[in-house]
Specification:
heterodimer; A: 263 residues; alpha/beta; Rossmann fold; 6-stranded mixed beta sheet; 4-stranded antiparallel beta sheet; B: mainly alpha; ABC transporter involved in vitamin B12 uptake, BtuC
Chain lengths: 263, 281
């Protein structure tokens, strides 16, 4: 199902697979300044329910700052509003999957410990009770990760760790799921698994997904909308619109005529 | 204490006989209190990569002793505990501001603290020898009052662990995730650091400044090699500390060596043993 929507940001008409009107995050004239450096300015975009939006841009373009201002972790100018169906303003529940450090392989912390510590009050240095274990299993099943529960967190592969962190961000079920570089450190097979899973999640839980990536191969297949960011928004559109745009080519120093592949 | 003396008298050792060798009975009780305490604290010290940091805290405890002594306090330990907690507070602030346990910053603190301690204690041509016992440790110096104080700290640390372990652990292993879930641990980290400072200061005079940090690092370092989850990790760390602590006391009694050093040697052996078993689980 595709909706046509007149975008107020002045980037023209954007075809959307999302459902504007059910819920929407509106970012207007957002700016972030850190220690007199302008990180972001004049950012305008909407994030609709059930939409998967990819944020791309070179390192240092302000992708993480944009996420952190939506999360309310850093001060910003401009407005970020969230509206429920019918235009009722509300505070969105946001699930966040941070860019992940690589864990020390020797950390004696199991997935169960890590998960239980984040969602519950039970002190996890004591044996985890059965009921809490069952709850963690249920959460992990949302990302098909039940089998990971007793593994040590440091021995997980990149894709497995992302799934665990995703399961954590889905508890409680958010309205917006933000993922910072979920595909970094994930192998090719794992990338498709993760993106399929995101696609499944947004349909099951009726939420919008906003993620940053350097992997342009997956965009065509999985993203509804792509935002090209370099301190301000250079281009918004469908994956092919953005990947073929001169803005994209100049930001990533690609030769004209080359299809938006790897950089 | 009478109850403890009675309890110990059932043990089949010559020093356990009624009305003799009270210092040994005090020492045993002290070890029973302090090794679980070190075992608990060490899990977090190792997980947060604070081994070097806790070493620096130990040095500042020495400075506290020296300042306490120069101020003419009858019991310099009290003054030292206060001083070490103040330093712990400053450390926590610096750690929070810089967001990392930079080894250079810690080294600066550590050497400044120890230099200040030596400076104060030798000022005006004083002899340093009266502080020698602090370096090596002297088991005779354990007093029931100190054991009581350690028991209180043990209870406080257990309470801190039960109420805040989850949050402290999350923010030490994954800061960004902890931030996103609104976890703030500045005060809890301070309480944790203050507990280390107090424990190190109180036990320094009988364990010895030179080896005290090993008690904060080795139990968890060994447990880490053998455990797959946090429960096993804590259990092995506390039990390993306890067994090596009691064993070290026995060794030092029968061979006449320093207790702190004996415990540390056993812990080090335990650590190397654990390395052999690493990866076999």
């Amino acid at each position: 199902m595709r909706f046509e929507k007149k975008d107020k940001t002045g980037f023209g008409r954007i075809p959307l697979r999302g459902r504007p009107g059910t819920c929407q995050l509106r970012v207007r004239d957002l700016g972030v300044t850190l220690e007199s450096d302008t990180i972001l300015q004049g950012i305008n975009f909407d994030l609709n329910c059930r939409e998967i939006v990819a944020l791309i841009g070179p390192n240092g373009a302000g992708k993480s700052s944009l996420f952190r201002s939506i999360l309310g972790q850093i001060p910003y100018s401009g407005t970020i509003k969230f509206e429920l169906a019918g235009g009722y303003p509300s505070r969105p529940k946001i699930g966040y999957v941070p860019q992940s450090p690589s864990f020390d392989r020797d950390y004696p912390i199991s997935v169960l410990d890590f998960f239980a510590a984040a969602i519950g009050r039970w002190p996890v240095f004591l044996p985890v009770p059965k009921s809490l274990r069952t709850r963690v299993e249920e959460c992990l099943s949302r990302v098909h990760g039940e089998a990971l529960i007793d593994k040590r967190i440091g021995t997980l592969s990149g894709g497995e760790l992302q799934r665990v962190l995703m399961a954590l961000a889905l508890e409680p079920i958010p309205q917006i799921l933000i993922l910072d570089e979920p595909l970094s450190g994930v192998d090719v097979g794992g990338e498709h698994l993760l993106m399929e899973m995101l696609d499944e999640i947004r349909q099951t839980y009726d939420l919008s997904i906003f993620f940053s990536t350097h992997d342009f191969n997956t965009l065509q297949q999985y993203a509804d909308k792509v935002i090209l960011l370099q301190h301000s928004i250079l281009k918004v559109g469908t994956p092919s619109e953005v990947l073929r745009s001169p803005e994209f080519q100049s930001v990533f120093h690609l030769n004209l005529g080359m299809e938006g592949g790897d950089n | 204490m009478e109850f403890w003396y009675w309890l110990v008298s059932w043990l089949p050792f010559e020093w356990a006989a009624p009305d003799s060798m009270l210092f040994m009975k005090h020492a045993l009780l002290a070890i029973l209190v302090v090794t679980p305490l070190f075992g608990l604290l060490s899990t977090m010290v190792v997980e947060s990569r604070m081994a070097f940091f806790s070493d620096a805290l130990g040095h500042s405890a020495f400075t506290g002793m020296a300042i306490g002594a120069i101020c003419g306090l009858a019991d310099p330990v009290g003054g030292a505990v206060v001083f070490a907690i103040v330093i712990a507070f400053l450390f926590t602030l610096v750690r929070q501001k810089t967001r990392m346990a930079s080894d250079t910053a810690i080294s600066v603190f550590s050497s400044a603290a120890v230099a200040l301690g030596i400076f104060i204690s030798t000022m005006g041509g004083q002899s340093f020898t009266k502080f020698n016992s602090l370096l090596i440790g002297d088991i005779l110096s354990v007093s029931p009052a100190e054991i009581g104080l350690l028991a209180i700290i043990l209870i406080l640390v257990v309470v801190l662990w039960v109420t805040s372990f989850n949050q402290m652990m999350l923010s030490s292993v994954h800061q960004a995730l902890a931030d996103s879930r609104g976890i703030k641990v500045v005060w809890k980290n301070f309480l944790f650091t203050a507990a280390i400072a107090a424990v190190v200061t109180i036990t320094m005079s009988w364990v010895g400044l030179l080896v005290i940090n090993s008690l904060l690092v080795l139990p968890a370092a060994a447990a880490r090699n053998l455990s797959r989850n946090l429960h096993q990790y804590h259990l092995i760390s506390v039990l390993g500390g306890l067994v090596c602590g009691i064993g070290g006391l026995m060794v030092s009694y029968y061979l006449g060596a320093s207790t702190g050093a004996s415990i540390t040697v056993l812990l080090a052996l335990w650590f190397f043993l654990s390395l052999l078993f690493k990866g076999k689980h």
